[in-house]
């Protein structure tokens, strides 16, 4: 089976009062569907941040189509990065060791935690954490950026 894409262009000659139309038919082989497996352990935070960043970069380079492609590529990369960044034992520690919650305006992966917020150390980890309301948030201490939101 082939997909058919029909492009029609219309040219107007305003000075002469004439118009013309041209139709181009492009055929392409149909693509096969592939199974996509999802990772139930991710929060999607990496995907969301990656999608936003990728869409902006793609729009600058390739306009609206670039935004779509960049957004998809960024979402996949962000989701993969998020999984690799926070080991399960780190998430377990944070969930089992609740601390007094704080209030932060912007709770999103990539957002910076204010310096006024005291971060808690995670044993055998390069990361620290804080609870924002009921939500544990894992932070990179050098940049104070949120790298993971435990769900």
Overview of the molecule:
The chain is an alpha+beta fold and about 150 residues long. It has two domains: about 1-30 and about 40-85, no CATH class; about 95-150, no CATH class. It has two helices and six strands. The strands form two sheets. It has a four-stranded antiparallel β-sheet with strand order 3-4-5-6. A two-stranded antiparallel ribbon has the order 1-2. A hairpin with a 4-residue loop joins strand 5 (about 135-140) and strand 6 (about 145-150). It is elongated, with a radius of gyration of 24 Å. Mean pLDDT is about 75; it is low at about 1-20 and about 35-40.
Class derived from helix and strand content: alpha+beta
Record the strand order, biggest sheet: 3-4-5-6
The structural domain count equals 2
Distance between the termini: 44 Å
The shape is elongated
How many strands in all?
A: 6
Please give the count of helices.
Answer: 2
Rg is 24 Å
Low-confidence stretches: 1-20, 34-40
Sheet-strand content, in percent, reads 25-35%
Mean pLDDT: 73
Q: How much helical structure, as a percent, in the residues?
A: 25-40%
Instruction: List SSEs in N-to-C order.
Output: EEHHEEEE
Sheet having the most strands: 4 strands, antiparallel
